[in-house]
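Quarterly update, task 2.4: adenosine monophosphate-bound model.
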Amino acid sequence: MQETKNRTIAYAVLTLIAMGGLLWLSTKNRAVTVDGGFRITMGTVARILVVAQNQPQADAAIDAAFDKIYDIERLMSDYDPNSQLSLVNREAFEHPVPVDAELFEVLTAAKLYSCTSGGAFDVTIGPVVQLWRKAKDDNTAPTPEAIAKAKETAGYENLVLDADNKTVTFKKEGMFLDLGGIAKGYAIDKAVEVLRSAGMQGAMVDIGGDLRCFGTPANGKKHWFIGLQDPQNEEEILLKLNMDDRAVATSGDYRRFVMIDDEKHSHIINPATADSAQDLSSVTILAPTAMAADALATAVTVMGDEKGLKLIETIDSTEAILISHGDETSFEKTSGVDKYTDYD
Ligand code: AMP
Ligand code: MG
């Protein structure tokens, strides 16, 4: 009798433990999708979406990721006179300027992309960018003399990076760095690092339409997706891309341009001519990191379709989708793009 009672109690205890275990497992596996909403940074709008175990954890991770983005903006903005980049721009011709590891990392990568792209991507193009920005305000195109003068200091070989001391020096007076073609991508990657180490199961970080996704997709979906907008018709989606563990960046004159005498000038400068790069309406790059996607999108816009596609074909796990100017929307792409449009 006693034995039966003991066995019953033992079964009851075991059942309770099993039920408790199941309950623990189900809470553990339950994920919430939290949208951090739109926040202004780097002259545009950013948004972070995370998949997490619970709302408080998600909220804290989103705030930490945005703090990282704001830190990078404070380091790398050429608009902010108090940024570390502005200090470099003011003093690097006079003496080597010590910089934070993150700024040094971006400058090192920028030089590498300059080499890979044969100088199409070049952060020393700053004075020419400034000239076109001013031209927009004055509604007058810069004179050939002004362009020639601004171009004089450009050239990534004039940017000296000392890896041992983490210092930056300019070889020419009047040099000016502009990280507008790469810093957004870097900030996205750093925000992703923060979200991963905060234990997020998945996330998407979007700064001005350039973005990176990882892990579990939002709202119980099978994949992270993005729709590539048709530059001729903003309502239309040209291509739907699978974005699992991937970054994407788009450069294009349909998104940002300088308008002078009703003529559109791209905000991207061809360092070879110091004129705006006009050939392509939009360049989208898919890559493992957002920094690579960002820099290469800018580079390919300058290089044009033939050279640009050729370059991207040589880079591992990296693809390009190019849209030319014209009445009808047609696009060219590298051979591996189809991998990302194949989903179910
Ligand atoms: P994105 O929208 O990423 O293509 O970046 C465009 C921004 O990059 C411009 O607004 C400039 O600040 C900067 N930029 C323009 N031309 C170049 C270039 N040839 N190489 C690197 N950065 C550039
Ligand atoms: Mg870019």
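Highlight for this quarter: The CA atoms of residues 180 and 192 lie 20 Å apart.
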